[in-house]
Design a protein that fits this description.
The complex is a heterodimer of chains A (190) and B (252). With 190 residues, chain A is mostly helical. Chain A has four helices and no strands. The chains are: A mainly alpha (190), B mainly alpha (252). Chains A and B meet through helix 1, helix 2 and helix 3 of A and helix 1, helix 2, helix 3, helix 4 and helix 5 of B.
């Protein structure tokens, strides 16, 4: 082979660094990159490779990955929208709950007020009834007292009359019924 | 091979860090015609397989809550989609599949190249130059188709003083045509250099006294290369987006 010249120099590094490639006669063992004899081969297979990769990417891989990414974006957007919807619904529910609470509170207050009014009315009526009863009883009692008092007066009168008659009789004279009564009457009035 | 013979001559150390980049026919033979299945074919096939496994098998369940595989697929999709949208604007999104193709190919080729015994397809200038030229021509043609002659306004910096504009135009034109060169060499160079350095360190491991150091160095380089594998794919893709933005909105 052409490398006989190298063996003559005995310097392996000449080959290693590719310096030998500058000598046209030694092109083959120099830098393989500068061996133009297989450029055609490399270019042919490179073109084949690039075309295959391009077809694989543009027909299958890229549309698919693009679709996956778009789908994920869509899913994320949907999920966020759904979450916002849920949040709005939760807020609505909270509002409704608070409204119900307020309603219940006002209703409770009305009920309390009504109950209070009713109780007040009952109470008033009971008071009135009690008052009238008390008044009636009082009148009755006063009447009874008056009766008793009247009775007492009569009793006093009859006792006084009897006493006067007895006194008059004891003093030995004939009691004059009319005069005694008149005297008792006048005395009791005095 | 002759290189091995050299290694034996130079005291047991076997240096052939460039062997990993050799293009070889898969099924024997020496001739490499344009259609011959080679290790390039094998590793590009594995790259396709990896892309399919990640993006198609990974997303096959179409789960709303993604599995790990699907997460990575979605992450890759979102990463590039956002990049295209941020840099090129809304009207750049229709070129997203092309940019995603570039990114997925480069990132998987880079990472698969880090497997031991692997062949790194993106370490070849033939591959990266084709990628860069494809971007360059696509962007240039797209620029003229979308903007007509107004696309040339890209080179005519209106913000600059009139006297400076021709000079700037010349610089802009040169930098425009250097784009595919830097675009392709950056990727291939990074891939090649890192892998070659690992191989050089690996060769030193044959010397017992140095081997622990060599292994530490390989580990460190490997970590760096994992980073570089992603960053170079990212850089290639983001520059493609920047160039595409020029075609879509040529005014500065």
């Amino acid at each position: 082979m052409e490398t006989e010249t190298f063996e003559a120099t005995g310097d392996g590094l000449v080959d290693a660094t590719g310096v030998a490639a500058h000598n046209p006669a030694d092109a083959a063992p120099g830098l393989p990159q500068l061996d133009f004899s297989h450029f055609g081969n490399q270019i042919f297979w490179l073109v084949v490779t690039l075309v295959v990769i391009y077809l694989v990417l543009s027909r299958v891989a890229l549309p698919r990955i693009g679709a996956i990414l778009a789908e994920r974006q869509g899913t994320i957007t949907n999920d966020i929208a759904y979450a916002e919807d849920l949040k709005a619904r939760a807020q609505d529910a909270e509002k409704a709950y608070e409204k119900a609470l307020a309603d219940a509170r006002t209703q409770a207050q009305t009920i309390v007020a009504e109950a209070r009014a009713e109780i007040q009315a009952d109470l008033d009526e009971a008071m009135k009834r009690a008052d009238s009863e008390i008044a009636a009883r009082t009148a009755e009692s006063e009447k009874a007292i008056a009766d008793i008092r009247a009775g007492a007066m009569d009793a006093v009168k009859s006792v006084a009359t009897d006493t006067a008659q007895a006194l008059v009789t004891a003093m030995g004279s004939k009691p004059d019924q009319a005069a005694i009564q008149a005297a008792v009457e006048t005395r009791m009035k005095g | 091979m002759a290189t091995e013979a050299q290694g034996e001559e130079s005291g047991g150390l076997v240096f052939h860090p460039m062997d990993q980049f050799k293009v070889e026919p898969l099924f024997g033979g020496d001739a490499i015609a344009w259609y011959t299945p080679t290790n390039v074919t094998l590793w590009m096939g594995i790259t396709i397989l990896a892309v399919v496994v990640l993006l198609i098998l990974g997303s096959s369940k179409r789960a709303i809550v993604p599995s790990r595989g699907q997460s990575i697929a979605e992450l890759a999709y979102g990463f590039i989609y956002k990049m295209v949208e941020d840099i090129c604007g809304k009207d750049g999104v229709k070129y997203f599949p092309y940019i995603m193709t570039l990114f997925m190919f480069i990132v998987f080729a880079n990472f698969l190249g880090l497997l031991p015994m692997a062949f790194t397809t993106t370490s070849h200038i033939a591959v990266t130059a084709l990628l860069a030229l494809a971007v360059f021509f696509a962007v240039t043609i797209l620029g003229f188709v979308l903007n007509g002659p107004a696309f040339l306004g890209l080179f005519w910096v209106k913000e600059a003083p009139l006297a400076l504009r021709p000079v700037l135009a010349l610089i802009e034109v040169i930098s425009y045509f250097v784009r595919p060169v830097s675009h392709s060499i950056r990727l291939a160079g990074n891939m090649m250099a890192g892998h070659a350095v690992i191989k050089v360190f690996a060769a030193f491991a044959a010397i017992a006294a140095i081997s622990p150091l060599s292994i530490v160095a390989i580990t460190a380089m490997y970590g760096l290369e994992v980073l570089v594998a992603f960053i170079q794919a990212y850089v290639f893709t983001i520059l493609t987006c920047v160039y595409l933005k020029d075609a879509l909105h040529p005014s500065h």
